[in-house]
Amino acid sequence: MKSKLSVLIVAGLMAWSLAGLAQNNPGANDAAREGRRLCVELIQEIRSLPGVSGIHLMAYRQEDSIPEIIDASGVLCGRIPWYPGRDPDPNSNRILS
Fold first, then answer.
1. pLDDT digits 0-9 by tens, 43-67
2. Under 8 Å CB-to-CB from 81, ≥6 apart: which residues?
3. What is the tens place of the pLDDT at every residue in 1-29?
4. Residue 39 in 3-state DSSP?
């Protein structure tokens, strides 16, 4: 009998490198905005690939841009993300054994 191996694939995407790519685009007036637009476009393309279960978005020294990118990409489908410092810790009511 042949066994099937289940694997979850998470694609890694670095937003800061996209800003560098955007600077090389002669039509881009604002490299940071163009980088975010490219990132959103890539997220939408990656999530349509069969077998991809998620995206790990990295934005070194541009962490403040992550919520905007995630929101614009539509991956949350209307769900509201948890933000540290704004929302209560979801694990604060857990009983440790």
1. 999 988 888 888 898 887 778 888 8
2. 67, 70
3. 455 657 788 888 887 656 566 666 666 66
4. helix
pTM value > 0.85: no
H helix or E strand, kind and range, residue 67: helix 66-73
| Strand partners of residue 10 | 54
User: In this structure, is the dihedral angle defined by the CA atoms of residues 16, 20, 26 and 31, taken in order, positive or negative?
Assistant: positive
Task: Compute the residue count for the chain.
Answer: 97
Judged by DSSP in three states, 10 sits in strand
Instruction: Name the nearest CA neighbour of 13 among 43, 51, 49.
Output: 43
46 touches 55 (CB < 8 A): yes
Q: What tokens appear for 1 in the block?
A: 């009998």
Q: What is the CB neighbour count within 10 angstroms for residue 59?
A: 20
